[in-house]
């Protein structure tokens, strides 16, 4: 794909509706872009596997992983006045979601617009004006005047998925920078697709299986199944990682947008395999691929579940920095996605059984 087609891939992925447990629309996009690259299989958790055409079955296995789900909500109850009570799928800060637009899926599979309701200041008490309501106190207004209308006319059901209503766009004032939803981890999914495409037709010393894992945002549930299916010898986990360049002291910035992908040494769920990590960092330096290094005190990725599966799996995380992650709007850069794919492809092309054994 040329650059415009790569950006279009990211746009389609970002705009697709796919909160945790309801990733089908996003997987449809990924199938379209990967069906020529290998044999596709899927399990009941909606993990999508791309078994590369060139795989031999007798080489060490590299697992590429990116999660297909996004943070969002689910309808918990319908109030008598037609408003919707909801719960979170993944975590968004309450202060970032009030008065935002959402899309609610009805019984026909259509996504209906609504807003997360907020009380006008005219009706707020002095105390309320200084408080951020909890998620359990918020509701969604889809224009229904009663529970009957919401259910029978609009087709809203308990358990319906709710997605942020955001359309992908390029920043006019900053070419190759984008605004959109679900860059965590659709930008990682895009990087994985680009990696698989770059490796197509190449004779490697390893077999490569791409996985688009489900339900990462609710506890890395999908990858706990997919890693058992793939049984990799090593794994590369793509992620849309939180950028820290708008609020951190300069000496603490480790994931700046536009500075390349971030390789994470440590977070709350994983210590990256130091030998595999050094191999990746040295290769990036040798090939002049820009990248950043980070040590995070919190957070976690699919890598947290991958690296302790089976008898332990050497794993690294290649994160594409995204500003304002886990909110309606994120900001990310094309060249970070491009560099992430280049690095992952180079790693796959340079791995050998002997190198993997040294990890």
Automatic annotation (TrEMBL):
Signal sequence annotation: none
Active site residues according to the UniProt entry: 216 (proton acceptor)
Residues where Zn(2+) 1 binds: 67, 184, 239
SUPFAM superfamilies reported in the protein's UniProt record: Aminopeptidase/glucanase lid domain, Zn-dependent exopeptidases
Cofactor info, note text: Binds 2 divalent metal cations per subunit.
Cofactor(s) required for function per UniProt: a divalent metal cation
Keyword terms: Aminopeptidase, Hydrolase, Metal-binding, Protease
GO MF entries: aminopeptidase activity; metal ion binding
Source species, domain of life: Bacteria
Keyword set includes RNA-binding: no
Residues the record lists as binding Zn(2+) 2: 184, 217, 326
Transport is among the record's keywords: no
GO biological process terms on file: proteolysis
Family of the protein in this entry: Belongs to the peptidase M42 family.
Protein name (database record): M42 family metallopeptidase
Organism listed in the record: Trichococcus flocculiformis
Species classification: Bacteria, Bacillati, Bacillota, Bacilli, Lactobacillales
